[in-house]
Amino acid sequence: MPTRCILLLDPTGLTVFQADGKSVRNGEHFPADEAGYERFASHLRSHGQWLYTILADIAEEGFQLEDVPYSTGKDRAAIIKRKLGQHYYGTPFSLAHAEGRLKEGRRDERLLLMALTQPQTFEPWLQRLEDAKVALSGIYSLPQLAVQLLPNEASDQQLLIVPTPAGLRQIFFGHRQLRLSRQTPLATGNAQETAIAAAIEAGKMHQYLSGQRLVDRNKPLAVRVLAHPEQISALRERCLDTNALRFDIVDLLQESTRLGLRKSDGKLHAGMLFCHLLAKKAPAEQFALPTQRRFFRLWQTRFALKIASAIILASGFLFSAKQLLEILNVQAEIQQIEQQTRLDQQRYDATLQALPKISLTTDNLRALVTRFEAESKRAQGLGPTLMQLSQSLDRFPDISLDKVEWQVIEKLEAATVGTQFPGSTSSASLGPGPFAQLSVNAHLPVSMASMQMAQIDRVNMFFKDLAQAPDTVIAILQMPVDAQSTTTLKSDQARGTPEAPRFAFRLIRKL
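Below the sequence we write its predicted structure tokens.
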């Protein structure tokens, strides 16, 4: 991270403070003259990599409260630009701080318009920053940070008085919202002068605020004075409570500790505390123009790219470490498997050695095992096939057997299969044999002799029932009715005495 520098600008010149949100280190002071400008330019050439922020503690400020119609986007930007141009035409350093919408009427948006009314105070310093091409994060005004010095239980109207190196700063808040600020120069800045000026300026501010109807005349104004311990006794002698004012003298060192300022170089003053507040948390709005902040935008871009590169690099290292761990785990598993394989091989070899010696070679033993497996398939014989046929005949008691011939065959041939029943298993899908084959002659009852369509349907139902068993082929040898186109269908009267319709088929099942 680059060194964060706060440039405290006051009427006497510009002072460089190094702040990191925990401590403030006092740097070099550059007076507001040509010699100071040249020394500041030389400082920037030596420390161009630092990150700079300007904090203005000057009297030339403007504050204006405006209620504008609520809008968003480009319309709101145009309204704000027009209002800033109306009130602060002569300066580019202006901004609008949004305080929310009103709760009554048409619910307009309330804006506090602020401006640094003498841009020539900033031009010499900004020109040196531009020439050195350093990163300027923004320009801020000291009153923007003062709300952090208010107590949590602050009253609705609060006047904050802070002695700074530039003079006596008076800041008025309404409902913890900044309303106006003014600065009174001090000749010496000693304790007595500061105490007298604080008492007098508090009374003047109360009269002005009463005239502007910003405070209640019948209610005393709470005045919080933040001062160095060396000035507290003089302030308590001069700043006495009245019907209009109630003073609260606060130790600057204790307040700095409460706000997180742990260490500072040299004698702590209020300007250093404000630099600490700015480094710790900068306000959302600032006065610098986009052109004056372009090197800061470039710095942000470079910083973001560095962060992204670091994240990518770290991700690459993490991924590589993960892959390395996975490789190590895989290698450990491989070694374990290899060790287990060696143990299994040793047990296998020991088992072989324990077996009785036989005179068969490996090829002969393999052929013997293959033959044994084939014979095992044949061992079940024709029993399952005959059982299948018997169960189907039980479901079709009107079908009677005339003759059954059986045999075991090694392979199926086209002549063996003949015309295959469509509902049975395809002979091509059975694979190699052996197969059990039944050649069956059967007949239907004589009562069906005259019902040719019924004969065909009954036989097809019988074949379908047989074909439900897996690995079964039904080869039709003869149907009870010859339905070929070249055959003449004859009635029972033409044939004389009716005969039982006969049919024949082969039942083939894989063993």
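The chain has three domains: 4-60+118-288, 300-348, 378-510.
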